[in-house]
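User: Hi! I'm a student and our assignment asks us to look at how structure tokens line up with a sequence. Could you show me two examples?

Assistant: Happy to help. In each example below, the sequence comes first and the structure tokens follow. Example one:
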Amino acid sequence: MKLLLILALFTSSVFAAKLDLTAYSESLDYAQVTKVLATQNADGTWCFGTSVLHNDQGWDHYADAWEVTDLDGHKLGYRQLHHPHDHEQPFTRSQCNIDVPSDISQVVVRAKCNKHGYGGKAMLVKLKRK
């Protein structure tokens, strides 16, 4: 089972592949997306405020990024997290000016850590366009 999970995580991060939102680890060793607020700007781009829960343990093991993808796994946006949040859990960080094609009504937001990569709970987000 672990080999299949590792293989699935590797292939989904290297190649665009339809994401399976039902297969994830609940362990806090993996970064878990707990909440997402998506708002559309006047210019049509999007801001995503994403809350992440992870067992940050200093620089050796911490949630280091989250990304927005379409349902096929194509990356639309990315937010680098520049330091551990050992004493701030869950924490929320935003990324704006993300272009989402007008024919896309749902996106996936998933987080990763610097030790285990992706594999925690992702979130399907329905976009409310202006």
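Example two works the same way, sequence first and then tokens:
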Amino acid sequence: MGLRRLTPEDAAAFRALRLDALRLDPTAFGRAWAEEAGKPLAWFGETLERAAIFAAEDATGRLLGMLAYQGDAMLKRRHIGHLWGMYVREEARGQGLGAALIAACIAHARGQVSVLQIMVGEGNPGARRLYERAGFQLYGTEPASLRMDGVDSATLLMFQRLD
């Protein structure tokens, strides 16, 4: 399995993986499948230009997992980077891909920002443990931050200092 940063030429593969993630694991993301399913392929290519999205792929080039890094655009927050969109296909879990994707994003962010932030659903303790093993610490909880099918859930806010 290989790990690499996606480029706009990977838009179709990125779109397929992202939509699978939103459809198969809807409680893990702030965005809903319906929000992105109708977006044109060019929108996914533009996302790949704006964010550094790292992916794990198998020997055939099929994307197995991804994690995005994006620096904050606001002047007073440019020292902060955000990780988002972590997803590893079910059949590829337990092989260290999540940890490798986090490490790739941290390496990319180092020297660009001094703080990384990530959000994780309170109902996803496995992801929280993964982020904690990578050095992230809990700094807060956003109660009732997501509502799906009439059920509210909280989001855990985590950070890591890189300086």
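Here is something you could point out in your write-up. The radius of gyration is 15 Å.
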